[in-house]
Amino acid sequence: MSKNYKYNNLEGIERFGSDISTQLDSQLQTHLPSSIEHIPLEHHKKRDKDEELLAMLFSNIPLSLLGELIASLIFVKIVHITENIFIEKWLYFEISGLFVQLLVVLMYYNRDNFSKLPYLYYYKISLALTYINIACLTLYTFNNNTLIISLGIVYIALTSGGSLFHCYTKNTHIFYIASIFIPYIFLCLAQGGEFIFIGIGALIYMVVSMYASNLLYFYLVQSLELSFIKHKRLNKIMRFRELLNRKQRSLTLQKNKQIKLEKELLTLNETMLAGHQLLSQKKQETLNILDIAYNSINEVVIKTKETGEIIKVNDSFFKCFQLSHHENVQDFVRYFHSIVPQHHPLHRFFPFTPHCFDADFLLQTLDNKTYEVHLKITHNKENIWIINEITEKIEQATSKDHLMHYDELTSLPNRHHFYKTLQTYIEESKQSNTLLAVIFIDIDYFKMINDSLGHQYGNQLLVYFGNLLRNTLDNKDYIARLSGDEFICLIKNLTYKSDIDSTIEKIQKALKKKVNLGPNTISIQASFGVSYYPCDSQSENELISRADSAMYHAKKKKTEYYVRYHPDLTKENKQTHQMGTELKNAFHSKLLHLVYQPVFSANAKTIEKLEVLIRWRDEAPPSSFIPIAEQLGFFHEISLWLMEEACKARITLDKILTSPLKFTINLSTSQVQNPKHMFQLIEIMNHTGCRPEWIEFEIKEQALSYMEYTKMLISIAQKHGIALSIDNFGTGISSLSLLKNIPFDTLKLDKQFIQHAHHEKKGQSILASLIHLAHQMNSRVCICGIETKDQLRQAQKEHCLLQGFYLSKPLDFISLSKIIGKS
Q1: Boundary-marking domain end, from 212, 243, 274
Q2: Containing domain of residue 747, as a range?
Q3: Per-residue pLDDT for 577 more than 80?
Q4: How confident is the model over 525-575, as pLDDT tens digits?
Q5: Residues 150, 212: one domain?
Q6: How many angstroms separate the CA atoms of 346 and 370, rounded?
Q7: Among 544, 567, 554, which residue's Cα sits nearest to residue 438?
Q8: Which of 108, 126, 153, 721 is the least buried, fewest Cβ under 10 Å from its Cβ?
Q9: Are strands 695-700 and 662-667 parallel, antiparallel or unpaired?
Q10: How confident is the model at residue 81 (pLDDT cuts 50, 70, 90)?
C-alpha cells in the first residue's frame, strides 16, 4: 500500500505538472516567436537523466574507491597471518582495478580532450573486473573458517556502502552483489555445519541488497525526473513571466504613447484655438492695413453699385478732384460729366456698368489733364473704378525722350543721337555727291584740370567748351558730346577737304580767350582730328575711329593741333599701342630698372648730384617710351615706382657716403599740373625714411607756361624742404621772362649752348650771359651735354656743375656703389 501510495503521489504530481506544462506550452507557442526550436519532452528527459546520473556517479566514485581500498587493506591486515602469497597478489590486482577506475574518473573530468569516449562503458568494465577480483577472494579462504567469517564481514561492509555509491548503475551494482555473494554462499554451503546458516543469511542479505539497490535506483530516477520537470516548468514559467513583462512593457509603452498623443491633441487643439484667434486678429489687422492702403494709394478708387450709386471712395478721390470730405459724393457724377468730352464713352456710362467685363479707358479731360480709368466688375455686381492721373508721367516721358538723345550737362546731342544723325548725313552726302567731315575734338589736359580743380570746375569747363563750339560753328553744322571731354562735329556739303580749315581756325581763335573757373583763370587748348566721307571710309564706325586716330596723333605731336586722317596713322597708332602694351607688361613684370648719371663739380672730380633715369630696353631711349606711358595713362604709376626705388637706393648709398649727395628726379608736365601727384611722391619719400635734403625735383622748361601750377609745386616742395631745378633751359622763347617769378636751386642749360660755345664766340657770350643771370638770382648752373674734351675745357672756364657722357654715362647701382666706395 505504501508503495502504491507513493506511486500514486508521484503520478499525481506528474499529472499536475503535465497539465501546467500543457497550458504553458500552448501559451508560449501562441506568443513566443516561431523561430524557437521545440524539442520533445521525452528526448529531454532521457538525455538529461543520463547526463545527470553520469555526473552523480562520477562525483561519488572517489569516496567509493577510498572505501574499497580501505576495506581491502583491512582484509589484508586481518589475514596477513596466513602468509598466503595468493592474497598478496590479489591485493595487487585489486589496487590495479581501483587505479583503472581512478583513471576513468580522471578522463571524465578531462572530457573536453576525450569528448567521444564512452566513460560509463569504461567505468562498468573496470568496476566488473574489480568485483570479479573481489569475488576471487572466496577461492583463497577455502577450509579456513576464520577467513570465511572475516570475508563475509568484509563483503557485507563493501556492499552495504556500495549501494549508495553504485546504485546509479543498477545492473552493474546487482552484478557486483551477485558476483561477490554467490561464490561465498556456495563456499558456506560447501563447508557445512553452522556455515550453512551463514550461507542462507548471505543469500537473504544478497536478495535484500539487490532489492534495495533496485529500489534506490528507482527513487533516484523518479527524483531526477521530478527535478527535470520542475526545472522545465520553472523555465517555462520564467519565459512566460518574461513574456508577460514584455507584454506589460508593450502595454505601458502603448499607454504612454496614448497619453502623449492625448497631450499632443490637447496641445494641437490649444494651438488651433490660439491660431484661430491669431488668424482673426491678423485678419482684422489685414483689413485695417488694406483700409489704410486703400486710402494711401495715389490712384482714385470709386466703388459703385450696378445702379450707379457710389458706395465708397478713398482719400485720393478727394485730393485728385479737390473735393471736401463733407461734400456729397453723389454730386461728383455731375462734376465728372462736366469735364469729360461728350464723345467719350465714360460721358455716357459712368458710373453705370458699360460692359459685362472689365475695361480700360484713356481719358483726356477738358481741363487738359490725362487719366487712365480701369473698370473692375466684381462677383456681386459691384463696380470698382480706378482712376489714375498720368499727366505728369506723359510730361516726364517727353522729358525722358529728350534726356535719351541729349547730354544732360551741355544740352548737346549725345552719342545715341549722333549715330542716328551720322547715318542720315551719310545718306544725304551720298545723294548729293559731296564730302562729309567728321571732326573729333578733345580738350587737352582736361583730366589734370578736373583732378586738380575739382569735378565742379571740370563740369563748368565742359559747359563752356560746348557753348563755345555752339557759338562758333554755323547753325547748319552738327555738334555732339560723345563722352567725357570728347566732342564731335559733322560738317556736310563740302567740296574740298581744305574747306574745313576755316572752321577749325575759328574754333582755335575762340580758344585763345582765357576761361574763369571760380577763382581760377586758365587757358585751354584742344586737339582736332578729321576724317572724310567717302574718302577715308564709308562706314560710320570707321569714320569715327579714324577721326579719333587723327586727333590722337595731333595730341601726341603737340605741334599740330589739327591733323587729317591718312592711312599711315593707322599703322603708327598700332605700333604705339603695341609698344604701350609691351611697356605695361614690362613694368608689371619688373623689367624696368634705374640708372644714375653723375653731375660733377667744376673740377670734374667730385660727384655733386646723381640724376635718376629709367631704362627699359638698351636700344630704346626714354624719349621713345615715356610719352607713350603718359598718353596711355600709366606713367604716374611708373613715376611712383621710380620714386620708391630711388629713395631706397639713396638710403642704401648713405652707408658708404662721406659727403652730402642729392638724387635728382624728373617730373613730367602732367605731374606739375596735378598737385595730388606731388603729395603722393612726398608721401613715398616719408614712408621709406628718405630725407628731403637728399632729393631734388627737376621740371622741364615747358612746364613754366603753366605758371599757376608751377608756383603751387614750388610752394609744396619748399614747404617739405625739397630743392627744385629747371631742366633743358633754353628750348623755349618765353623762359627768361618767367625765371624771375620762380625760386629755383639749379638751372640746367640745354646741351645746345655748350655745343655752340666751344667754336662760336656768340655762343660763348650767350652761355656766359645765362650763367651770369642765374648767379644774379642766387642759383647754381649745370652745363649739360658735355660729349668731348673741348666742350669740357670750355665748360670748366665757367665754373659750373658739369654733366655729360664724356664725364660719365649713366651707371647701374652696383657700378655706382663701387665708384663711390673707391672715392
Answers
A1: 243
A2: 581-822
A3: no
A4: 899 999 999 998 899 999 998 999 899 888 877 666 789 988 877 777 777
A5: yes
A6: 14
A7: 544
A8: 721
A9: parallel
A10: very low
